[in-house]
């Protein structure tokens, strides 16, 4: 009897086993094909620049979940991330000579053509393997920008270990590059000149720094009307777009002395009462630092609150905001605006700023309109804690349309721009703290019967600049 070889009749088949090994190797290579090359490096005075690459990335890892999670989940299976071990070795003499020194980490890539790729940068203290949403992050750059830039600051003398994680938030086959630089910072003798210090100013050349909102949050919304307030006392920005208020703290304010280079800290500091409605409005009175937020629900009264702490909860304001219980007095049913500035000098008869609640003597105005007809303005003498009666800014017979936002000049004059006044751009002006108003038409201007939201600016010499869009 002829017997088949055991290799053919048993459970072991070399060809099948070889195929299995090849498949397993392919799967393994697919999983780890994005590993950093090289996997580690030491940044020092002798080696001030490091570069590595990783990729291609074929699997996305859309973490962390906005607002809910503070950091990404990284493992080698369901949540892939690239990992690089960074060591900084800097002498005490270098740190002493360059107190603003930083390790600047730049993540960049070329999109494969989808236009949707997005990679984020996270830096951890020490040597870190897998991470969860609660693993503490030292610094990050997790916006929608390309490149993403984060900095390790302040640098410590000696040998310090860090772990750099790149999260393929939206991966479409890209190979990423990472550049790490030892920069002296402002006042230093090496590195990129002036890095960490103020940007040079050139007359006529504006400077910009872009802060991207957290992914998936309502701060990203393209709806609404963006309002920006700035508190010079704290260096923070207050933003209101569709209702909820976001507080943005620049990196050099989060960490004093840090360079003006990286992502800002975004925090939801909503007033709650003004989160929903059809007309979200925000205004910050810079001398006092008080920010006002309001919204309309389609009626004559607005939802209204103010904060003296940039929305931070305090003992006296547990939510961070003080809500005006009675709302702003009736005046209009739509399109409110809030503005503030100095009182006219001399003060009109009967106009008295509250010396206790308004020690800086700031007049706060609240104006709204009856849909697209007349507009009314109220004034607060206690820094927005209460308002007096409404006075007619314009009656709708000659001027109409959706007015722009109120502004107050250095001389105390209050202005409300109006898009259409007898087929010309117009403005309602009060020289007596809102008690009486006059309509003025801009000569040689074009009608804006279909336009809205004219905008004005006033320079230190009380010269008025008027901007409008024909539509």
Give a topology summary.
Elements: H1 6-9, H2 14-32, E1 40-44, E2 49-54, E3 82-90, H3 92-97, E4 102-109, E5 118-125, E6 139-141, E7 148-152, E8 158-170, E9 176-183, E10 227-231, E11 236-240, E12 245-249, H4 251-254, E13 265-268, E14 281-285, E15 290-296, E16 302-307, E17 322-323, E18 334-342, E19 362-369, E20 375-380, E21 391-394, E22 399-400, E23 407-408, E24 414-418, E25 420-421, E26 426-430, E27 438-441, E28 455-458, E29 464-467
Parallel strand pairs: 1-3
Antiparallel strand pairs: 2-9, 3-8, 4-7, 4-9, 5-6, 5-8, 10-11, 11-12, 12-13, 14-15, 15-16, 16-17, 18-19, 19-20, 20-21, 22-25, 23-24, 24-26, 26-27, 28-29
Q: In which range does the helix fraction lie?
A: under 10%
Radius of gyration: 30 Å
Structural class: mainly beta
Q: Given the structure, what is the number of helices?
A: 4
**Average pLDDT figure:** 84
Low-confidence stretches: 1-32, 187-196
Tally of separate domains: 2
Biggest β-sheet: strands ordered side by side in the sheet: 1-3-8-5-6
Silhouette: elongated
The CATH homologous superfamily of the largest domain is named YVTN repeat-like/Quinoprotein amine dehydrogenase
**CATH topology of the largest domain, what is it called?**
Methylamine Dehydrogenase, Chain H
Assigned CATH architecture of the largest domain? 7 Propeller
Largest sheet: 5 strands, mixed
Strand content: 25-35%
What CATH first level of the largest domain would be assigned? Answer: Mainly Beta
Ends: how far apart? Answer: 97 Å
